[in-house]
Design brief:
There is one protein chain. This protein has two domains: 2-259, Acetylglutamate kinase-like (Carbamate kinase), CATH 3.40.1160.10; 268-352, Roll (Archaeosine Trna-guanine Transglycosylase, Chain: A, domain 4), CATH 2.30.130. It is 38% helix and 21% strand. The chain contains 14 helices and 15 strands. Strands 3-4-2-1-5-7-8-6 form an eight-stranded mixed β-sheet, sandwiched between helices. Strand 12 (307-311) and strand 13 form a beta hairpin. Helix 2 crosses helix 4. The radius of gyration is 20 Å and the shape is globular.
Length: 353
């Protein structure tokens, strides 16, 4: 059975009066039953808890407490909709640090696999009541959805938003010419330039975070869509290219990606980044080890054995891997010019996007 991860954005869930739309959830519950009948196992990553908690009329002020209240009401809405279709749901709350420990990563993978094989629909969210706004958090559900899709070896990841996909210019801009980016095999640098760096009042991510999630997912063998879910798009039509959307084809065959590589993609640190030169980029894309001689700069801090991101001079992601030294030692070697034959990330512990 092929798994489809469906990320539902806050703006999709909320109606014109900024209230949770039960009709939208009912629509995707109905489609989930159809997808199960067609041999797909749907899995949802759902935003909305903070906004629902904020609009509950309670005397609260903090995002974390809004999330705690809103999460219960959000799950009630999902449970009602799916029970009406004769389906069971399960709730999973995850934090980024949970996945850094390989044992917990494997346990998360086993739980999701067992649920989907049993025909139970997992509804997943970050543990916002504890991690909302913290440095170790995913920060928004777009990246969480990408990670989940890699963990469960999904065939598809679908971002449902209030736009039809990625445009060459912010669709909210009235001036200028724009067109929808449709089928593509890569998340190109220029795509990030198309994005507005502002987000709506209810959203935490925007198109920029969806592109970052898509970049990760397609590296993990997951074909990814960005589509308009506000009007309850039919998932079957989306997969069959009968509705407008942006589609990113997977860069690798899913069955050729090891569990170790999936773990690295899922657990890269946000705190540390290694900037490399063009020669290093060419070398690691050919499957070679990242050497210190190709490192131009170290951003942030990381410890030996952590999974850090590799970027080019424009801060565009190239890949990630397990470092052989901490950031202080690497910076010292760069300062001293002691970079000959020094491994920074061995090729066996490195994966490119």
């Amino acid at each position: 059975m092929s798994i489809i991860v469906i990320k539902v954005g806050t703006n999709v869930l909320m109606d014109s009066k900024d209230q949770l739309s039960q009709d939208v959830i009912n629509c995707y519950a109905r489609q989930s039953k159809q997808l199960l009948g067609a041999g797909y196992a749907p899995l949802f990553v759902s935003s909305g808890a903070v906004t629902i908690g904020r609009t509950a009329g309670l005397k609260l002020t903090d995002k974390k407490t809004f999330a705690a209240v809103g999460q219960v009401r959000l799950m009630e809405a999902y449970r009602k909709a799916f029970v009406d279709e004769g389906l069971d749901v399960a709730q999973l709350i995850v934090s980024r640090p949970d996945l850094h420990r390989r044992g917990l990563f494997d346990a998360f993978q086993r739980s999701l696999t067992e649920l989907t094989e049993a025909g139970i629909i997992p509804i997943i969210n970050e543990n916002d009541a504890l991690t909302n706004g913290e440095p170790e958090a995913f920060g928004e559900n777009d990246m969480l959805a990408a990670v989940v899709s890699i963990v469960v070896r999904a065939q598809y990841l679908i971002y449902l938003t209030d736009q039809f996909g990625l445009y060459t210019q912010d669709p909210r801009e009235k001036n200028g010419r724009r067109h929808l980016v449709c089928d593509t095999t890569d998340v190109a640098k220029e795509f990030f330039e198309y994005c507005s760096h502002t987000v709506s009042a209810n959203s935490m991510g925007g198109m920029l975070t969806k592109l970052k999630g898509a970049q990760l997912a397609i590296a993990g063998g997951v074909e990814t869509f960005i589509a308009n879910g506000k009007m309850c798009v039919e998932i079957d039509d989306l997969l069959s290219c009968r509705v407008p959307a942006t589609r990113f084809y997977a860069k690798r065959e899913a069955d050729k990606i090891t569990t170790h590589e999936r773990w690295m993609l899922s657990c890269k640190e946000k705190s540390g980044v290694i900037v490399v030169d063009d020669g290093a980029i060419e070398a690691i894309k050919k499957g070679n080890t990242l050497l210190a001689v190709g490192v131009r700069k170290v951003l942030g801090e990381f410890e030996h054995g952590e999974i850090v991101e590799i970027v080019d001079s424009d801060r565009h992601g190239i890949g990630c891997g397990i470092v052989t030294m901490d950031s202080r030692d690497l910076e010292l070697k760069l300062d001293q010019g002691s970079t000959n034959d020094v491994d920074v990330i061995h090729r066996d512990h490195l994966i490119t996007y």
